[in-house]
């Protein structure tokens, strides 16, 4: 075969890239192609920071390709139309791409496959969605049995990881658009895009932090997580390499490495759920909780978005999201529970807000995380579990460093009052330079009242289902 197209979507890497290797094995020449798809680029679920991270990753990939005698070919438009043009221009006889699970991706790929020689290859996850099934062929909707079967299948091994090609032969005369100049990541951004940074972070995490991951991952002020979610989101790091790193580290740091492996399996579980139940993108998985009588107060939603709810740990998390495009996973659970159960605002509003701002915004993981926190999903937390934001702050930010960083109005508040500043006496507020209701808002809602309201509304929805 003469020429093959490597259609890049969420696999912005050269190492352990199964679609790329399939293209190289099948053809003498390979065209690395990325298509700026208006349906995704202009989607209300796409935000500026994630666009900037993607563009940075594409620029890094182009540099890596050029070092190997190749280059990134950029087109813009509907993928089926642009790929057809490329086939006609180059005589390409096959198109290789990494399979995706989102409803849009599957519709897009079906349109392409109807008229073009598209071959979908694994790599987005370690296990394809069809691989982890019940003995009767059914689909798992609870994480624990899914995880047991996932772990019981042959585990990935370092010897399976595909090497980075030394040379990628690409015709020099294929037209390419320039990547857009904007948006760009701000100076000092939390995440540097590109495969090289993904590899550096993986090695640093395994060497320095994975041993304490079991205890450090929930502490809001610590750098206790892997910090790899944006790189997994865009495939700057392969899921298989991440799993191999976790499995290898278990020999020396069992608890932390095994829990990190569990988090990687959660990612695959949510991919499987979205693949098999695409309706979760639009509605609650649980039918008995699809008719919750949401309050949907737009002013309360705006206060939540801006980090002005009067609950410090909630506000710190929301401000962190706006400033950096990332939020600690524990904080994601806290703010999601608060929006749906304290403010009684439809979880889909929050899901959409996250997707607009998260650099690692992933349709499956974001939807799964929201529905778990709200209690409407597959393997969901019980609907009657309602996080107390004060207790969550005291437990996971015990010294107040996280709140003081992101809510500077409370920087001088005593720790005894930091997570419930409305309890500060007037003289303490004056000394702290933070008058509640003036410098920092009073609580937007009272916890005990909001909890009882949520329980009542959820119970009514179940009763009426």
Description:
With 465 residues, the protein is mainly alpha-helical. The protein is built from 21 helices and five strands. It folds into three domains: 3-124, Rossmann fold, CATH 3.40.50.620; 127-159 and 195-276, Serine Threonine Protein Phosphatase 5, Tetratricopeptide repeat (Alpha Horseshoe); 287-464, DNA Cyclobutane Dipyrimidine Photolyase, subunit A, domain 3. Helix 1 links the parallel strand 1 and strand 2 (29-36). Helix 15 packs antiparallel against helix 16 (363-374). The longest helix is centred in the middle third of the chain and has 23 residues, at 254-276. It starts with a strand and ends with a helix.
Number of discrete helical segments? 21
Helix content: 40-55%
Cα distance spanning the termini: 57 Å
CATH superfamily of the largest domain: DNA Cyclobutane Dipyrimidine Photolyase, subunit A, domain 3
CATH class annotation of the largest domain: Mainly Alpha
Could you tell me the radius of gyration in angstroms? Answer: 24 Å
The figure for the number of domains is 3
Number of strands: 5
Based on the coordinates given, report the CATH architecture of the largest domain.
Answer: Orthogonal Bundle
Structural class of the helices, strands and pairings? Answer: mainly alpha
Unreliable stretches: none
Spell the H/E element sequence: EHEHHEHEHEHHHHHHHHHHHHHHHH
> Approximately what portion of the residues adopt beta-strand conformation?
5-15%
User: Could you give the order of strands across the largest sheet?
Assistant: 3-2-1-4-5
**Major β-sheet profile:** 5 strands, parallel
Specify the overall morphology: globular
Instruction: Average the pLDDT over all residues and give the rounded result.
Output: 96
Tell me the CATH topology of the largest domain: DNA Cyclobutane Dipyrimidine Photolyase, subunit A, domain 3
